[in-house]
């Protein structure tokens, strides 16, 4: 990228989407609106999937197992070459944060719609990322992320940080290789356990240690950078409502943020991105200390957790409050355009929520559900809902099959309102109007969450579901 001079463009008129489900359909929508032709790829399990039906062209890339299809670099590149696609959009998951894939795209002369490989690598390892962020002056959770991994040293560091601490695999992700340690006595056993888990999942045993915040909020900042050194933040999202470290309900903006804190976090996030030469859409995740002791300070403190070097599942809530199309931004930036607007031109309008609809059974410990979707529908008119305030980003339609091969997320329900309480009322009405038959979903669970008095009162922290277990199940 450094060889590019400002305004050197890399236009493309056809894009391949290396993904499936709702995000593939979502990306195609913006591409189509910009007059860009679309190519879908699919596995045998997805031959009749919605994303295949909606694309201009579709290429089979392998059998059902993701490692033999959606994760197969050669098959995806081959499909792009065969169809003459000038660019690849990776969506989220699959190849989206695979630096080798980005390099392979460059070698094949295909534009990767995302950051340079070096930026992905810089954030891929949690310890290295933290060291880098420290240099850039981005606040970190107190902790240890050094190279020395001796048992004694790690234990001494944990004692020094003060319990409870959180042990995290440097190479980790998806909540794996992570354990809370309550006291010095339990440290060695937890360390051994985490190392084993991390070795099995990532082939790497390096650990980092963090102060364990007992009541944090997960607040993340959407950033965007172009090739010419410009960077902006499109404000924040609160994703505190999580189950097993996976997000369930998201909203933007984060409730209760002062303008000063919003600016401070936004600027820190842009600094983080610029430190690693970032280009495109990215998200910098922070923990915001929401514990009672920190509320004496007006806002609490925030700490860098990680950067996701791709478009996030929850990007639509940001689109709803800013009026921007983030996929269109991605496509333009990948073509070599400068950012569509400056920081001063961005503003927050109203409030937005997103609820993730999963094919899973909350009564059976969220066991993924499969089957024939007899009906999926949202009758906005019948429910008296304004189509401008409700958006359903779906990867399925009535009559589709839901298989066990991939992530069980079927759709995302996104709403907008003039303020948080209006948006929440709309979310509750839209959830009630959402009609899914044939496959078990978490819809009723989402309704219980969204109508919970503490959620309505924005009393949020990452253990919300755990703490309200009796009300929610
Ligand atoms: P992963 O990459 O495996 O998803 P993260 O580092 O992003 O792991 O953390 C996932 C979740 O774990 C966070 O959203 C938060 O809920 C919780 N978490 C992470 N670090 C801490 C911490 N230091 N204290 C308390 N909770 C934490």
Automatic annotation (TrEMBL):
**Domain ATP-grasp, residue spans:** 130-335
Q: Which domain of life is it from?
A: Bacteria
For this UniProt record, the keywords arranged alphabetically read as follows: ATP-binding, Biotin, Ligase, Nucleotide-binding, Transit peptide
Cofactor field: biotin
Q: Which residues form the Biotin carboxylation domain?
A: 11-470
Which pathway or pathways does this protein act in? Lipid metabolism; malonyl-CoA biosynthesis; malonyl-CoA from acetyl-CoA: step 1/1
* Coiled-coil regions listed: none
Catalytic activity reported: N(6)-biotinyl-L-lysyl-[protein] + hydrogencarbonate + ATP = N(6)-carboxybiotinyl-L-lysyl-[protein] + ADP + phosphate + H(+)
Recorded GO molecular functions are:
ATP binding; biotin carboxylase activity; metal ion binding
Protein's job: This protein is a component of the acetyl coenzyme A carboxylase complex; first, biotin carboxylase catalyzes the carboxylation of the carrier protein and then the transcarboxylase transfers the carboxyl group to form malonyl-CoA.
**Subunit composition and interactions:** Acetyl-CoA carboxylase is a heterohexamer of biotin carboxyl carrier protein, biotin carboxylase and the two subunits of carboxyl transferase in a 2:2 complex.
What's the name of the protein?
Biotin carboxylase
Q: Which organism is it from?
A: Onishia taeanensis
Range covered out of full length: 1 to 473 of 686
């Amino acid at each position: 990228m450094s060889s590019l001079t400002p305004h050197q463009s890399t236009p493309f008129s056809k894009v391949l989407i290396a993904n499936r489900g709702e995000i593939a359909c979502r990306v195609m929508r913006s591409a189509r609106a910009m007059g860009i032709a679309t190519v879908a790829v699919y596995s045998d399990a997805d031959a009749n999937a919605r994303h295949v039906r909606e694309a201009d062209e579709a290429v089979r890339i392998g059998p059902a197992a993701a490692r033999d299809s959606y994760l197969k670099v050669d098959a995806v590149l081959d499909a792009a070459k065969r169809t003459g696609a000038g660019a690849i959009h990776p969506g989220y998951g699959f190849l989206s944060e695979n630096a080798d894939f980005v390099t392979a795209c460059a070698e094949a002369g295909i534009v990767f719609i995302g950051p340079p490989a070096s930026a992905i690598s810089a954030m891929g390892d949690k310890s290295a990322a933290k060291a880098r962020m420290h240099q850039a002056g981005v606040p970190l959770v107190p902790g240890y992320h050094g190279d020395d991994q001796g048992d004694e040293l790690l234990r001494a560091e944990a004692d020094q940080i003060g319990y409870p601490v959180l042990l995290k695999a440097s190479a980790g992700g998806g909540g794996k290789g992570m354990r809370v340690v309550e006291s010095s006595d339990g440290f060695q056993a937890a360390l051994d356990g985490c190392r084993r888990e991390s070795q099995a999942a990532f082939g790497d045993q390096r650990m980092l240690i963090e102060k364990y915040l007992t009541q944090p909020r997960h607040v993340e900042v959407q950033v965007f950078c172009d090739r010419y050194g410009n960077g902006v933040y499109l404000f924040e999202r609160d994703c505190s409502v999580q189950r097993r470290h996976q997000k369930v309900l998201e909203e933007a903006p984060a409730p209760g943020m002062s303008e000063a804190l919003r600016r401070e976090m936004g600027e820190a996030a842009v600094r983080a991105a610029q430190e690693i030469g970032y280009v495109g859409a990215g998200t910098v995740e922070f923990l915001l200390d929401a514990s009672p002791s920190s509320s004496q300070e007006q806002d609490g403190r925030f700490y860098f957790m990680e950067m996701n070097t791709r478009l996030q599942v929850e990007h639509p809530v940001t689109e709803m409050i800013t009026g921007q199309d983030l996929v269109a931004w991605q496509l333009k930036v990948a073509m070599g355009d400068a950012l569509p607007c400056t920081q001063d031109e961005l503003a927050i309008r109203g409030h937005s929520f997103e609820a993730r609809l999963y094919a899973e059974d909350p009564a059976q410990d969220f066991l993924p559900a499969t089957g024939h979707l007899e009906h999926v529908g949202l009758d906005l008119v019948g429910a008296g809902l304004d189509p401008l305030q409700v958006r359903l980003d779906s990867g399925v339609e009535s009559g589709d099959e839901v298989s066990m091969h991939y992530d069980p997320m079927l759709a995302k329900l996104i709403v907008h309102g003039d303020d948080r309480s209006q948006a929440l009322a709309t979310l509750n009405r839209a959830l009630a109007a959402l009609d899914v038959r044939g496959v078990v979903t978490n819809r009723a669970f989402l309704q219980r969450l969204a109508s919970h008095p503490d959620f309505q009162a924005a009393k949020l922290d990452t253990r919300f579901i755990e703490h309200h277990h009796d009300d929610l199940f």
